[in-house]
């Protein structure tokens, strides 16, 4: 099959109605496309079968995770070019798959001819099964306790050693806070943890609840630097075991407790302060009012909540929102993003007074690029610790997410809220961003 790359490029341009912005190299070593551009490598014909049987993001993701597709050159540049090729976004509208739209337009006789040739290039047979790293259909109703535990396990129980490679010594899996772009990742993560503690105005002897505590970094910092008594809850057994060891090694077992527990099962409020850092994305729209009400109930009057959460852009038809297929199947099953305005509204509906919203979108782009660099620097070890497919999931997810933050497709915000008493004394200072009253 001579010049497969040229044929693929021509057919893709016919279906999508636009020139390919990247170069293509096919399994027969042929190449086509703009010179000097990043190269999309189609290693096997079955990559085309995956895409033809599941047009759009999921087919491409399956081919990537399986190693049927690869990129030579700057991965960020390639993803940036492909995002413009595969997705269209008008003003204030949701993204629309150009690939799926192109396939749906095959009523046109010329496009049907192009599709038949693409099918011939792909070869006979059904599509290969999805890579084993893909999350299977989860049992139970959406965001039930059982289903949430399984979803969290899919993402977090992939090996603490793997996360050490990616996250670095801080073991903080959320957006860092950068004073300078050339700060180290560890400096920026420490700055983020300290920022949260200062916004919560933590003091010795107070009780802190950290919802979705990860590997224990927040509770460790708060106990060590601010003298609080802290409880961290997570649904991941591996995270909990790792956090407990860190706490024991730091000699803080009398101050910090780690529980494998859902936030809906915490029985021992009230707390003086609550932090929820990168956890609310797992809650889901159907449970968010319950989430805010439970946190409000677990906080003493006058206590503060710091909710650190990724946000998406609002859509004209919010009912049409759906999670990206790649993220849902390979990264965060059942995860959902909400516009920051909706998050603020639901906190207020639960009885909180929202006092500050700080947008730190650019900080997450810097964080993700550091995580990608950590992964790529230790690639052979990452593959040994998990699997080639799992490492490729993380590489694609983090690099694409960095671009999404940089291009303002998604954001991240710290929302400081207070359970203000009936008398109205919030306990905050008159001047904004001076967190201690």
TrEMBL record:
Q: Where is the Polyketide synthase-like methyltransferase domain?
A: 162-403
> InterPro entries in the record, alphabetically?
CFA/CMAS, CMAS, MeTfrase_dom, SAM-dependent_MTases_sf
> What terms describe the molecular function in GO for this protein?
methyltransferase activity
Q: Provide a GO biological process annotation.
A: methylation
Which keywords does this Swiss-Prot/TrEMBL entry list?
Lipid metabolism, Methyltransferase, S-adenosyl-L-methionine, Transferase
What CDD domains would the database entry show?
Answer: AdoMet_MTases
> Family, per the entry?
Belongs to the CFA/CMAS family.
Name of the protein described by the UniProt record: Class I SAM-dependent methyltransferase
Q: Which organism is it from?
A: Streptomyces endocoffeicus
Q: What is the lineage of its organism?
A: Bacteria, Bacillati, Actinomycetota, Actinomycetes, Kitasatosporales
């Amino acid at each position: 099959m001579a010049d497969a790359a040229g044929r693929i490029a021509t057919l893709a341009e016919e279906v999508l109605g636009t020139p390919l912005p990247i170069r293509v190299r096919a399994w027969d070593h042929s190449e086509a496309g703009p010179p000097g551009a990043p190269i999309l490598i189609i290693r096997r014909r079955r990559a085309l079968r995956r895409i033809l049987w599941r047009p759009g993001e999921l087919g491409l993701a399956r081919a990537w995770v399986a190693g049927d597709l690869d990129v030579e050159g700057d991965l960020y540049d390639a993803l940036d070019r492909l995002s413009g090729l595969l997705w269209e976004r008008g003003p204030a509208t949701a993204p629309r798959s150009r690939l799926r739209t192109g396939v749906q337009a095959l009523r046109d006789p010329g496009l049907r001819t192009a599709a038949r040739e693409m099918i011939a290039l792909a070869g006979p047979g059904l599509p290969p099964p999805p890579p084993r790293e893909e999350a299977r259909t989860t049992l139970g109703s959406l965001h039930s306790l059982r289903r949430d535990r399984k979803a969290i396990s899919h993402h977090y129980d992939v090996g603490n050693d793997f996360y050490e490679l990616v996250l670095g010594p801080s073991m903080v899996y959320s957006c860092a806070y950068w004073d300078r772009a050339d700060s180290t990742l560890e400096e920026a993560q420490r700055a983020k943890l300290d920022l949260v503690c200062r916004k919560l105005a933590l003091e010795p002897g107070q009780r802190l609840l950290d919802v979705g505590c990860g590997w224990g970094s927040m509770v460790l910092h708060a106990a060590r630097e601010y003298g609080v008594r802290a409880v961290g809850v997570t649904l991941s057994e591996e995270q909990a075991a790792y956090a407990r060891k860190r706490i024991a090694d730091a000699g803080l077992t009398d101050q910090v407790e780690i529980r494998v527990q859902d936030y809906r099962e915490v029985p021992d409020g009230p707390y003086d302060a609550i932090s929820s850092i990168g956890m609310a994305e797992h809650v889901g729209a159907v449970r968010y009012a319950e989430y805010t009400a439970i946190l409000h109930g677990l906080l003493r009057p006058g206590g503060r909540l710091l909710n650190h959460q990724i946000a998406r852009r609002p859509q004209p038809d919010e009912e049409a929102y759906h999670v990206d297929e790649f993220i849902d199947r390979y990264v965060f099953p059942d995860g959902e993003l909400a516009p920051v305005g909706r998050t603020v509204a639901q906190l207020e509906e639960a009885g909180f007074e929202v006092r500050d919203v700080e947008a730190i979108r650019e900080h997450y782009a810097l964080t993700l690029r550091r995580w990608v660099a950590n992964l790529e620097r230790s690639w052979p070890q990452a593959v040994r610790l998990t699997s080639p497919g799992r490492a490729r999931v993380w590489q694609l997810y983090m690099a694409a997410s960095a671009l999404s933050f940089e291009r303002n497709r998604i954001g991240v915000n710290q929302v400081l809220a207070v359970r203000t008493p009936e008398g109205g004394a919030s306990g905050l200072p008159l001047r904004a961003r001076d967190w201690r009253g």
